[in-house]
Amino acid sequence: MDPPTGPTMGPYDYDMLVIGGGAGGLAVAKEAAGLRQKVLILDLLTPSVRGSERELGGSSVNIDSIRKFLQQASLLGKALQDSQKYGWKLKENVPHGWSELVGAVQQTVQTRSQELKRELKNVGVFYLRAHGKLVEPHTVEVTEVDGKQRRLKAEIIVIATGDRPEYLDIPGVREHCVTSEDLLSLPHPPGSTLVVGRSPEGLELADILFGLGLPVTVLQQPAPVLQQPALQQPALQQPALQQPALQQPALQQPALQQPALQHGFDEKMAEMIDNHLLVSGVHTLQNCSLVKVETTEAKEDLAGGSATTTQQSSKGRLRVTVLTAQGQTEQTDFDTVLLTAGRKASTRDMGLECVGVQCSQDTGKILVNERDQTSVDHIYAVGSVQHGRPSTTGLSVHAGTLLARRLFIEDSTLCDYTNVPTVVLTQMEYAFCGLTEEKANATFGEDSVEVYHSYYWPLEWELPARNKYSCYVKVICHIPDQERVLGVHIMGPNAGDILQGFVAAMKCGLTKQQLDVTVGLQPGSAQVFSSLTETQRMSEALMMRGNC
Ligand SMILES: Cc1cc2nc3c(=O)[nH]c(=O)nc-3n(C[C@H](O)[C@H](O)[C@H](O)COP(=O)(O)OP(=O)(O)OC[C@H]3O[C@@H](n4cnc5c(N)ncnc54)[C@H](O)[C@@H]3O)c2cc1C
Q: Do the record's keywords include Oxidoreductase (predicted)?
C-alpha cells in the first residue's frame, strides 16, 4: 500500500522524510514516529556492479550480520579441530558446504529485513522501496523500483545513505572482481581468493575464508616499515592442567613489514592481526600494487552457455598482475578477487549540491555540526554518510535516536562521538574503545601515557594447546589524571563482548586503580584486566637489556 501523501500539515506531506534505511535512518525514523511525527523512509540501493541487491536494513543487516555469520562458520571449523581433545570422535577433514552456509545466511538476512518492515509498520513509519533525490530544499524526488516517480515535501529531511565499496580504477577490476556486497551471491565457493586491501573488512574476510578451508592471499600495498617492542612472556592466568608445547609468541614471528590496518587503528594491534594471519597460513603479497585483472580463459555465463567476461563462474580463473617493490611484474591465478580497498559515501546523484548541502571534497561525505545539521538548516545527516565521525552501527542508532529527540521533544542531548567501541571480526577477534597508543602519545605526550599489557590464555584453549601468545590486552592510561583509562584494546575470542562493559566503565571515568581492585571472574578470560602489572616501558627496557 502506498504511503499517504497530500498536504496534511501545511505545505508538507511529511514532518520528516528519511533517505536511507540503514541503522541510522531506521533509528531516527522510528524514534520520530514514536514522538507522533508523520515520517516516511526511503530505502533503495542500486544493485552492485555484479548485480547483487540489498534488503532493507543497510550495512547492519546486509553486511555486519553476514560478517558475524561467516566468522562463526570459520570459528566452528576451528572448534571442530579442538573438539577431538574434548573427546568428540570426528572424522578428519570434515568438508564445508558453501551453498548451505549461503542459503542459511541469505534466509536470515531476508527474515531480519522482513522483521524491520513489520517493525516500521507497527511504530507508524511509512516505508517505500525507492530512491530519494533532493530537487528543492524541502522536496524529494522519489523513484520506485519500477521507475514510478513522484515528488514529496517534508519539513525536515534526514540523509542516512551510508557508504558502499569502492572500485579501483584499474583494468579488469570492475569486470572481474567482487566486493563484500557480492560475496554471498556467488553460486559456488570463492575457491582460491585474492583479497585486495588492508582494511578491517579485508582482513576479516581473508581470515574467515581461510578458516573455511580456502587458500587466501592478501595483497598489501607498499607502506613504511614499523618497529615493535617485544613483550615479556605472560604469567599464566589459570593454573595449567597440562603444560602445552609452547609455540612461538606471535610477536616474534617474522613480522610483516607493515600493519594491516591503517584506518586509525592501533599500530601494534594491527601488527598482531598481521601476525595472526601469517601464523595461520594466509599468504601475503607485500608491497605489491595491483596492475590488472583478466581471465585466463573465456568464462561461461552463469545461466549456462554464452561466453562473457563479466560474470563470475565456476569455470575459468582470474589472472592477476602485480608490480613488486623491485619493479617487476608478477602474475598469479586465483578463482576470486575480492576488493576491500575502500568505501565511498553514497552522496552522488542525490541532488545535494542543488539544494546547498555541503560535502567534504576529500571524502564526499556530508559536513555536519554537533547537532548533525548540514549546511541547510532543515536537512540533517546521520550515520556513516557524515564526514569526520566514527562509523559503527551502534553509533548510527544512538545518533539517530538522539536527533529525533532533539528535533521533536525538549531534549538537547548531543551524541558523544568519543569512546565508540569497534570490533574487527577476524577469527582472533579484535575490539577496542577509546584512544590508540599513537593517538594517546600524540595528545598527552609519551611521558604522560602508561600502557599496561599482557597476553592471556583462555582456559578452554589449554586442552587443545592452542597458541599461548595470540590473545592479548592493552590498557592505555593517562598518568597525571589518576591513570584514567584512555583506551582498552583486546584481541581474543569474543573480544567485542568482553569490551562492552569497559565502554560503560570508561564513560564513568574508569581508572587503572579501579581495574586493580576489581575482583576477577574465575574462570574467565576477562579477569586478565584485574591483574595487569607489566607496562610497555618495562617490556621495552627488558628488550633493550636483552639486546645488550
Ligand atoms: C565491512 C564493514 C564492517 C563493519 N563492521 C562494523 C562492526 O563490526 N561494528 C559496527 O558497529 N559497525 C560496523 N560497520 C559500520 C556499520 O555497518 C555502519 O556504520 C552502519 O551500518 C552505518 O549505518 P548507516 O545507516 O549510516 O548506513 P548504511 O547502513 O550504509 O545504510 C544506508 C542505506 O541507505 C540506502 N540508500 C543509499 N542511497 C540511497 C538513496 N539515494 N535513496 C534511498 N536509499 C538510499 C541504502 O540502501 C542503505 O540501506 C561496518 C561496516 C562495513 C562496511
A: yes
What pTM did the predictor assign? 0.86
Between the CA of 162 and the centroid of ligand 1 the distance, in Å, is: 5
Ligand 1 centroid, distance to 22 Cα (angstroms): 5
- What is the predicted pLDDT for the residue at 508? 96
- Gyration radius (Cα) of the chain, Å: 25
| pLDDT value at residue 334 | 96
- pLDDT attached to residue 300: 46
Q: If the chain, 548 residues long, is cut into consecutive pieces of 10 residues, what is the mean pLDDT of each piece?
A: 56 97 98 97 88 85 88 93 91 85 92 95 97 97 95 98 91 92 86 90 92 92 45 37 32 36 77 89 89 78 34 67 92 94 90 96 95 98 95 95 96 94 94 96 97 96 90 97 98 97 97 97 94 92 72
The two beta strands, 193-196 and 216-219, are parallel
Burial 302-333 (b: 16+ CB within 10 A, else e): eeeeeeeeebbbeebbbbbbbeeeeeeeeebe
Answer whether 140 contacts ligand 1 (Cβ < 6 A): no
Are 366 and 386 a contacting pair, CB within 8 Å?
Answer: yes
Ligand 1 mutation target, pool 28, 53, 60, most atoms within 8 A of CB: 60
Cα gap 425→67, rounded to integer Å: 7
Q: Which three cell numbers stand for residue 311?
A: 560474470
Phi, psi angle pair for 444, to nearest 5°: -110, -10
The alpha helices in 56-215, defined as continuous H runs, are 58-59, 65-83, 98-123, 173-176, 200-211
Instruction: Provide the pLDDT for residue 2.
Output: 57
Give the residues across from 477 on adjacent strands: 450, 485
For residue 208, the Cα-to-chain-centroid distance in whole angstroms is 13
Distance, CA of 397 to chain centre: 16
Beta strand extents in 6-100 (DSSP E only):
14-19, 39-42
Q: Which of 389, 343, 190, 206 is nearest to 283 (CA)?
A: 206
Instruction: Tell me the C-alpha distance between 217 and 192, whole Å.
Output: 8
Q: Is the beta carbon of 396 within 6 A of some atom in ligand 1? A: yes
